[in-house]
Amino acid sequence: MTTSAEAEQESTGEERTNTPAAAALLTVENLRVSFGDAEVVKGISLAAWPGRCLAIVGESGSGKSVTARTLVGLTGPGSRVSADRIEFAGHDLSRQSERSWRAIRGRDIGFILQDALVSLDQLRRVGDEISEPLKLHGWGTRASRRERTVELLGSVGVPEPEVRVRQRPYELSGGLRQRALIASAIALDPKLLVADEPTTALDVTIQAQVLDLLAESKARGRSVILISHDLSVVARLADEVIVMRGGEVVERGPAQQVLHQPRHSYTRALLDAIPSSRTRGTRLVRPADGEQPARRARPAAERTRPVLEARSLTKVFRGPDRVDRTVVDDVSFELFKGETLGIVGESGSGKTTAARMALALLEPTSGQALLNGERWSALPSAKRRPLRKRIGVIYQDPLSSFDPRWAVGRILTDALGTGGRPPASGAEARRRAIRLLEQVGLGRQHLDAAPLRLSGGQRQRVAIARALAPEPAVIVCDEPVSALDVSIQAQVLDLLTELQDELGVSYLFISHDLGVIHHMSDRILVMNEGRVVESGPARDVFERPQHPYTKRLLSALPRLAQA
Amino acid sequence: MTTVTASRAGLPARLRSARPEGWAGTAVAALIVLFLLIALIAPVLLAHGSPYTINLQQTLLPPSLSHPFGTDDAGRGLYTRVVYGARESLGIGLGATGLAMGIAILLGFVGGLAGGLVDTVISRVLEVAFAFPVLLLALLLIAIRGPSVNTEIFAVGIGSAPGYARMVRGQVLSVRQAEYIGAAGALGHGRLAVIRRHLFPNAMRPMVAVITLGVGQSIVWASGLAFLGLGVAPPSPEWGALLDSGRMYITTAWWLEILPGAVIVLVALSVTSLGRKLQHRLEGAAR
Amino acid sequence: MSGAPLSTVTEATVAVASLRPSARPVARTVRRVLVKIVTAVFVLVAAASVTFFAQFLVPGSPAAAILNQQNGRAQQWSAAQLAPVNREFGFNRPLIVQYLDYIGGLFHGNLGTSYTQFKPVTQVIGDELLPSLVLTVTALVVAWVLAIVVTLLTVKRRPVISSLGSTWEAFTASLPTYWVGVVLLVVFAVEVRIFPVIGGTSFMGTVLPVLTLAIPLAGFLGQVTRDEFEKVLDQPFITTARTRGMGDTAVRLVHALRHAVLPAVTLSGWALGALVSGAVIVENLFGRPGIGQVLVNAVNTRDIPTVSGVVLVVAAVYVVANLLVDVTYVLIDPRMRAQ
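ok -> structure tokens follow
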């Protein structure tokens, strides 16, 4: 408590000296928002200036999204909002009627939600969605609105805007859709743009394009408020940064300072938790005493015989329109004992399909997978079943991989009893389940918990425990941390690393997140459109990428350049 | 993708005020079902006299204290007849629903699991079956076999089966794609074991509410048939039969027609509502 | 019975997300419509086959059934007595010939001959079809209007109003047709005397029958629409519309409504079939001419061909209705075109 207050005071002082001459466009003082009995935003203050970007950073539950929505009066039903001061362009916003809010929304303040797939009305044409704010605020005539819409779409970099205007959002690719969403937000050129996680769930290359668009708005003198959990995304755009946790501001200041010389321990922990090639070999979560435990020197990965091998795996799907789509094209790799092979690619690259074939959960069209040098994917499924204990899986969404009726204990004892071993009975099974839980940092109190009641990080730990139960040689990790907050992600990644050190298990690690891949992997496979475009030791791929696609991927990666 | 979006977006952890469960409604429904159960087992506890005793001095009396539902054209107390009729009516409802669910589970699981040609054939068969509204199919069957209790059960059962079959098949298809089914396979469980331990229980879970709804609906349909004069023969106090015999007195002794109908409606509503609550409870157990 | 239709916005859109616009959307749509028509014809032929074989399920032979009916009692008939009947109705021909004859006859509009009235079934049904169609179609329209009005007024407003709306819909959806009819009859025709008890096909006489059919269906359609409406109002694209400055009413009408009615549109085909079932009861109750009366009489006299004929006509109506619904759905929800 004292630390954050201190940090606040100090940074506020610094902030003042950086204030540009222009008056603040938006000033918020002591904003409080509560839903029912719970206070979600506990007295925060912020300010936004024209031509500058304010970033609000925080993890889930920090209150950043609620704050963003309160700025346009859309906090939500059942909410109570109070503030000492909310001023926008000279108007007092704290006591607005709904009608006056409607005049401001879209015209003076624009709002960009994340994921255009669900943020645009799929049954309406793109043109109608973009011209809606124009129509609502009585701008121009029908003909001039049509013109303006095409103009807007072109200005955000959508090719052939006259054609796109008549299409529906689902007909556009992800990147174009997001641009269309932005176009609708800037249609009336509002002075303030609020973007709530505009780049989440987008491929890295598209992320970069979206951020460029926002930078353009900033350059034109508009004020931007960017909400994000991703510090590296924030680094590209922000001038000022506010870090929120549990409804409070724990740190604020110029971006340069907050991101490179953070004062508050939480900010520092957030920054440390970001995995990248720099953090390889270290723990992401620093223990309290600040000492970084030396990573146990791992025996050089035994390169005698790969534990998991893929030979020219290919998968062709026949679509409903009788067109063959090659999803995985001639993918080969070797995974040795005790090492991590990372497979990185954007969505649609075929990485998950390749993994499923390696797991022998999907029949390859051609090629085969070998487990411990023996036939694996070519085996008949009855013969394969007893061997399944040698290879485990962790999924992106652990909740959907658990039977919704089962408690944690049942999930674990079920996994303990597979692979041809006699199912442990009663007390013995419980004992082993508890051991598993302790191995992943949980405890006996979680045995009877329902997964639905656990947090995302805890669920993933249970999933890891389940994967460990049959004592496998290989674990396939399919985007295991993509759905987790940065700090939780760090804990899970650390856990996986520890387990690898302790048990010598090999990981086939799949992710779209380059930083995570670089942090975890010994060797890397880069996939694009079903093919392996580059492979090699992690350091080589990162520092000396050969293939143009890898280079493009790396350059698009938003990075926190260390000062 | 949706999961990533939801967790990462930091959506406001909106504390949804637990919807007041309408405990009053639940209490009433439970009470009615209790009455129903007593009427099934020991009707004598709820009503005095016999549903068959004729008393020509007391015909067509409106509801009063001594005869809460009034009397019919043979002087029999309507309330007593309703209470004693519960057994037959519920029997028809349960029998028809049981038959329908049996067929539905068979078709739904075979189609949903087998896929390919088998599934296509079953889907077509269901489509054809759907072209026959329940009542009309029932009428066709009655035209063939003549009206009787068994025909009623058979007719309503066969008629409502396609609807349930479609639901079961849909459930099977969606559960089949769930990640935990794949995960169980990855752990090394055999196909049949996965079906038995995961697929069947999870696919059938939402059907609890449907089954209770079905029992209510079956009673309604069976009584509809009786209303048309095609149901159980008098002097049975079966509710539908009561409706049938009350028809000619609609304009003169309205209670003979409306009250049994009201009882049917109340029972159907209560059973359905309790079924829904039970469903929520079952699903909530995993919460 | 709520059939839990599956089209939520997110599911459908995510499923379609990776599709590219097809090269020739018009040709594809035409082809899909043709496929649906062919399927419909197939379903009808299959249904007809069922009804054809139904007559052989009667205990004893069809000829015996006819003679039983004529004489008002069941008894054993000698071959000599059965022969003329067999000849007249063609029962002595091979089964396959009878079957093909029947199916072929369907395409000419020949539904067989009534056992009791010795007229073609089409003639027996003939004039009675129109009043029934008028009744059911009107009821469907009225049900839709009621459902949308009640839902729009009560969905996601103050809790009191919302729960009032959903309770009303749940209640009316579970009411049996005959009960609603009887209550309306007693209240409005007997006690209050606004409408006639037996109204024939006059306008005033049609009001109560239409309402009897429409009210429970409105409850059901309303429930489905309401569930979808509530889901849709929580979707992000609704929030986007609000951030542009759109008011609540406009958001509901311009954005949400179109999404919310999709499941109910899908169900309308089924609804028409259910309405016909109800029409049988309603016509019976209100003494209204129509195929319902024909049907009940036929059942009472064990006149299988007529019963089959009516059932088949209803099946045809149902199949055609579903076809129209499918086509309408494609027009409303262009996402389906891309699939």
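Residues 84 and 218 of chain C are 52 Å apart (CA to CA).
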